[in-house]
Specification:
Blueprint (H helix, E strand, L loop, with lengths): L1 E3 L2 E4 L3 H12 L4 E4 L4 H6 L5 E2 L1 H9 L4 H6 L1 E3 L1 E6 L2 E6 H5 L4 E3 L2 H14 L3 E3 L2 E7 L7 E6 L2 E6 L2 E4 L7 H4 L7 E15 L9 E4 L5 E5 L5 E8 L9 H12 L11 E14 L3 E2 L2 E3 L5 E2 L7 H22 L3 H28 L8 H15 L1 H12 L7
Parallel strand pairs: 1-12, 2-3, 2-13, 3-9, 6-15, 13-20
Antiparallel strand pairs: 4-8, 5-8, 6-7, 10-11, 11-12, 14-17, 14-18, 15-16, 16-17, 18-21, 19-20
This protein binds flavin-adenine dinucleotide.
């Protein structure tokens, strides 16, 4: 079967779903292809921190009802070094900007429900296998659904297909360079059925390694531990995880509540980048073009910022007949991505155990925390990056 549309979108993660809604708001048609089932996509436990920009986009699209009811507003974050906690107050340091905690899968459910309720085209279990004609004005996406071959003929292709998708490898060869950094540690993350022991996130640098206490809801906590790269989850029974978290997050007069672990997983810490996110009529957005270590909570927010720029550029093409914004898409989007890479790298270096106490790195980390204790400017710099710089500011 042949489907015809203006924009063919590969991937129904945050980048693909937000792009579809933003385009629909501009009266631009699209078809979304997603290789996994709806159940699979809506059950993936991933990000949970929404920057101010993401909150504003959801409100602007009229998709924030459940977010505003169930999401938790956070006005600050705690950074801890060897048991001493410092709070960074966002609202005060950024002129009122804040973050919200609301799971990525809830965001995806809200966007998908609304999209399907409005009869939007979205094919699950439909794997894009090839993109052709990106140098022409009518590229084609080939895909397979239930063993049958189909095509989407469109005017633009948006590859929102994550790190393992076909978008990046379909860019014209030689049109971009790659950068990658692999960290010598990973995160062991758990989702636990226990009310959070904190109202705001706690990032902790401890001699035993990094720990993070994050939240999902009033009843569900999300916690992470720095572990070795070759870690086997079988070596980490729940009791061991809770014991380690208690030690690494400890501070005077506070204790960590434990509870049943309902999900456990490992996330490698890495950065990947390409320095050009488009070729002809093919545009990449989100993890398809860049991965940041999760320490700054930027991955999902970057994907959404990318497609905000892309939707506006496609909108300008159809409404004003200009392709200047399309030509500038990669340059403009990458400014934010590089800022996020730098900030995520800074947070990773600040908070993780690299060497033993007494080493050069350890002294640098300790010095940064001491400086943070006295410098409003240093704290403000962390705060404004953490809540996200305004969308068109970079
Ligand atoms: C375990 C984990 C924890 C994370 N924690 C955080 C966090 O705390 N904070 C944060 O900000 N970020 C976090 N991230 C990162 C964040 O989840 C991603 O940055 C975000 O999902 C990127 O969205 P995306 O739409 O670009 O890509 P994805 O969410 O990966 O979506 C891509 C979609 O494309 C589909 N697809 C792939 N190939 C094809 C194909 N050939 N045809 C059709 N469909 C295809 C995939 O199935 C997928 O649904 C985490 C990621 C992981 C893996």
């Amino acid at each position: 079967m042949v489907y015809r549309t203006q924009v063919g979108i590969i991937g129904a993660g945050p980048a693909g779903m937000f792009l579809a809604h933003l385009l629909k708001n501009l009266d631009i048609e699209c078809v979304i292809l997603e290789s996994k089932s709806r159940e699979y996509v809506e059950s993936r436990v991933r990000a949970g921190l929404l920057e101010q920009n993401t909150i504003d986009i959801m409100k602007g699209l009229g998709l924030a009802d459940r977010l505003l009811q169930e999401g938790q507003v956070h006005d600050g974050v705690n950074l801890s070094f060897e048991g001493e906690r410092l709070r960074i107050p966002f609202r005060e340091l950024t002129g009122g900007r804040q973050i919200m905690i609301y799971g990525q899968r809830e965001v995806i459910k809200d966007l998908t429900d609304d999209w399907l309720a409005r009869q939007g085209s979205l094919f699950f279990a439909s794997e894009a296998t090839r993109i052709e004609g990106i140098e022409t004005s009518h590229p084609t996406i080939h895909f397979i659904r239930e063993g049958e071959n189909h095509t989407v003929e469109c005017e633009f292709v948006a590859a929102c297909d994550g790190f393992h998708g076909i978008g990046r490898t379909s860019l014209q060869s030689g049109s971009y360079s790659r950068f990658s950094v692999e960290y010598p540690f990973s995160w062991l993350g758990i989702l636990a059925e226990v009310p959070p022991s904190t109202d705001e996130l706690i990032y902790s640098n401890h001699p035993r390694g990094f720990a993070l206490h994050s939240l999902r809801s009033e009843k569900i906590s999300r916690l992470y531990l720095q572990v070795e790269n070759d870690t086997n989850l079988a070596d980490w029974p729940d009791d061991r995880i809770w014991e380690e978290l208690s030690q690494r997050l400890a501070t005077d007069g506070w204790s960590l509540q434990s509870g049943p672990v309902i999900e456990k997983g490992l996330t490698p810490m890495r950065s990947h980048m390409i320095n050009h996110m488009q070729s002809g009529r093919l545009f990449l957005a989100g993890d398809a073009a860049h991965i940041v270590p999760p320490t700054g909570g930027k991955g999902m927010n970057l994907a959404i910022a990318d497609v905000w720029h892309l939707a506006n550029a496609v909108g300008a093409f159809y409404k004003k007949g200009t392709d200047i914004d399309l030509e500038r898409y990669s340059t403009v989007a990458l400014r934010r991505v590089w800022r996020a890479q730098e900030f995520s790298s800074f947070m990773t270096d600040l908070l993780h155990k690299r060497d033993d106490p007494g080493s050069f790195n350890y002294h640098l980390q300790r010095s940064r925390f001491r400086y943070l204790r006295i410098s409003r400017h240093y704290a403000a710099s962390i705060a404004e990056n953490y809540v996200g710089l305004p969308l068109d500011s970079l």
